[in-house]
Amino acid sequence: MAYATNSDLTQLLPTVFEHGVTDWTDELAEAESDVKRDIEVEWLKRGFRKGDGNTRFDATLLQDAQWKRATMYKALADYIMPRLSPFREDDSFQLQMKHYKTRFAEEMAAEFGRGIQYDADNDSTIEDSEYFEAHQDRLYR
Q1: Under DSSP, is residue 22 helix (H, G, I), strand (E, B) or coil?
Q2: What is the Cα 83 distance to its own chain's centre?
Q3: CB 75, CB 4: distance < 8 Å
Q4: Are 96 and 76 in contact (CB under 8 A)?
Q5: What are the Cα distances from residue 110, in Å, to 43, 66, 106?
Q6: In the chain, at which end, N or C, are there fewer CB atoms within 10 A of the end residue's CB?
Q7: Each residue's pLDDT tens digit, 65-107
Q8: Residue 129 pLDDT > 90, yes or no?
Q9: What is the mean pLDDT of residues 38-64?
Q10: In degrees to the nearest 10, what's the CA dihedral of 8, 9, 11, 14?
């Protein structure tokens, strides 16, 4: 299942289809791929481990719903608004790119702060032990 769909996008930004484009599926797929990559990078950087101690990351074990907003913000910032923008002065699409880029960063930080829902045992349920949270053991100056 995809993290976000055209219908989800319409709920977030009702005017997204008023610019002559009738389908943003490819852009949402690109954004989903980017989100998975970003999660994996942070996963490895923060030293998360599956229940068996394995560090190998498997994006299919993530919970799609947790990353829906991040995917939409990424799609809007990096794929949809740039496609719509004429890249001229006073371009509202460029302002929206910046806005959604900020929203994406905030959303990713919030989800990492909350804990990544990761079905480590692949049983289709998320137990309390399957929330992977970042803990900082060392103070950096």
Answers
A1: coil
A2: 19
A3: yes
A4: yes
A5: 15, 11, 6
A6: C
A7: 999 999 999 999 999 999 999 998 889 999 999 999 999 999 9
A8: no
A9: 79
A10: -160
